[in-house]
């Protein structure tokens, strides 16, 4: 747990005032998921990704998504080698342990699909040959929720590939003073040390999978998942995959919080990040001024929370 505390301390040193978001992101990574960060420019999305990759000891690549980006620019391509008189595979930036897909909604659906296929299959295929991706393989994608001109919004089936959607938001006044006063010439990712190796990260993932969850809490997740499909304001509810992701990341946040068992609050805190980007609301709900967070609050309020959690013995 000392390594875990050091990871959080180092990231929070570079990303001021976002402790809960950092903890949720780390929980998602330790649960084996990919993360979508959606927020306005200048809130620290890219910096957070770089710092997290550095602290976790992962090789890092960044792709700036643009309308002219091609799938081969991501996964790589075969190039003819004159000396060997054969085609050889030249890997793309996807061949890294931690990949930042910056402004993923600014590239074409064909290029988006190439990345999301790699996320789902943990491999890429070029000219009939299959190449496995490194382990761990973590994708953090960013997008701006305000400016949609010239963008290609991810369809629901592709959004579902991301375990969580997070927002950073603006810092509080005192914290913003600290940010504004930071040395502009220094890269925050260069100011933090590597706390764990990628091999240790994989070991921590194994520990997360062993976190205990009572059957009553397992049932609670199932009820929350199914409630989204029956809610009057929801057009498309949460699939079994969404419920599975909530199950996994609830264990992850319990681990990050220093426990070897899940509490109801772990689940409730992760419902928004895991469910919100998977919901499709009815038009009449939007006209009433509701959004995903309002509907999820209603579902949480209406769903019975287990109080007596049985012992593990």
Structure in a nutshell:
With 313 residues, the protein is of the alpha/beta class. The protein has 13 helices and eleven strands. It folds into two domains: 1-201, Rossmann fold (3-Layer(aba) Sandwich), CATH 3.40.50; 210-308, Magnesium chelatase subunit I, C-Terminal domain (Helicase, Ruva Protein, domain 3, Orthogonal Bundle), CATH 1.10.8.
Secondary-structure blueprint:
Layout (H helix, E strand, L loop, with lengths): L1 H13 L4 H12 L4 E4 L6 H11 L4 E5 L7 H4 E6 L4 E6 L6 E5 L6 H13 L1 E4 L2 E4 L5 E6 L12 H4 L4 E3 L6 H8 L17 H12 L5 H16 L3 E3 L3 H17 L7 H12 L4 E2 L1 H5 L4 H11 L11
Describe the structure.
By secondary structure, the chain is an alpha/beta fold. 44% of the residues lie in helices and 15% in strands. The chain has a 5-stranded parallel β-sheet. Helix 1 runs antiparallel to helix 3 (45-55) and helix 9 crosses helix 10. The model has no long low-confidence stretch (mean pLDDT 89).
What characterizes the major β-sheet?
5 strands, parallel
Strand content: 15-25%
Question: What is the H-and-E element order?
Answer: HHEHEHEEEHEEEHEHHHEHHEHH
Shape: globular
